[in-house]
User: Which sequence fits this backbone?
């Protein structure tokens, strides 16, 4: 008997949260400037399915490609 919630044998705990402990919400964007999750995604993380977690991590990666990087003062970082 397989108690795993996913046919691949991967449990939801195997998807690591994208949180990087820089928890600050940009009110204009409605998301955390550290992990780039929306407030809805942050709040729902603990109850998301494996597929939802994977989709959220991918969405954060895509956002990172299109958003300017910011420092602790929320100002854009200089281009490297």
Assistant:
């Amino acid at each position: 008997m397989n108690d795993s919630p996913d046919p691949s044998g991967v449990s939801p705990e195997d998807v690591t949260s994208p949180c990087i402990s820089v928890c600050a919400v940009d009110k204009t964007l409605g998301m955390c400037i550290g992990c780039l999750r929306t407030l809805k995604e942050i709040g729902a993380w603990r109850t998301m399915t494996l597929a939802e977690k994977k989709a959220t991590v991918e969405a954060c990666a895509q956002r990172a490609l299109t958003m300017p990087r910011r420092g602790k003062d929320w100002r854009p970082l200089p281009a490297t």
